[in-house]
Amino acid sequence: MSGEKTEKPTQKKLDDARKKGQVSVSKDAQILFKLLMFYMFFFWLSQDYAARFSELLDLIVTAGLKQPWTFSESIFSMFFDLFVAITVPLVAVCAIAATLITWAQIGFLVSPEALTPSFKKFDAVSNIKNMFSKKSLVQLLLSIVKVLILSVVGYLVFKDNMGDMIYSYRAGLTQFFDVLVHVLKAIIFVSLIIFMVIAVIDWSVEYMHHIKNLRMSHQDIADERKQSMGNPQLKQRMKREHRSILNSSLTRVAGAKAIVANPTHISVALDYEPGKHDLPYILAMGTDDEALRIREFAKKNGIPIIVNVKLARMLYQDCEEDEYIQREHLELAAQVFRAVMEMASDQDKGVSH
After folding, report:
1. Is residue 11 part of a domain?
2. pTM for this structure?
3. Which terminus of the chain has a lower count of CB atoms within 10 Å, N or C?
4. Distance between CA 172 and CA 158 in Å, rounded?
5. 239 and 156 within one domain
6. Is residue 13 part of a domain?
């Protein structure tokens, strides 16, 4: 049915959705990139932070216990400095990572419409429905699965290194933090590999879901085409393009077995050879003046012109040049080629008489 949204969105549909801020973005790809940046950050600076943290704990454990009030200010100062040294670069790295991966997925995009406040966001009923929608429940389930996977990874890595951690703790805080840093690096590295697989799957699913939401019906495509034809600037450009390809189009019409007409507004040149094509093939099509030129060319070259208003409209709305007709058009197309065969048979009888 023409009302069913079964067709891929046109480029105009995708562009319009982009202007509204409707784009395909993978959250897991963002997590992967942030994790990668964090791993690089942690890999380069972990030894320094481990040494500073070890120094802080040494200060607390040794001097702090002997003179608790004397060293409280210096302990707080060291702790605050270490906190700032870790937090500020980490937040900056995550912010840069989020910006870069978003730009990599959708490019530079500022959508005023998406930023405009909408009262729908405050609709309690709608929000509750969204919370318990199929997509939300699937996302919740996937989040639980990801947490479980990462928990298992962390457990297994800690389990494999538990002996070294206990031994290093007895040897001293410095050795303990060295082993701890090694364990954390291993956990992050394995998590990177896991999220790489998850991100690829998530990006593919998000893209397919995005395309599915923007699907169009045959009528939507036809309406969009009519609307585009009504644009004066686009109309002028299309006229120039039509003039530039007119000669090549008419050359293609010469290979047609039949012209399906509307009878005056649309002309579609069809080719069909049982051994060559599985279905009738559209060589050229045109409307108004171009349709008239196609019919005139067909008359001069003895190509049959068959008037079939319904088929002409359907082919023009649903199909493009250089492609086969769709199977729902096959019955009407068969009528056209039967008419062509009858015309050829009548001509042969006339010649024989």
Report:
1. no
2. 0.47
3. C
4. 19
5. no
6. no
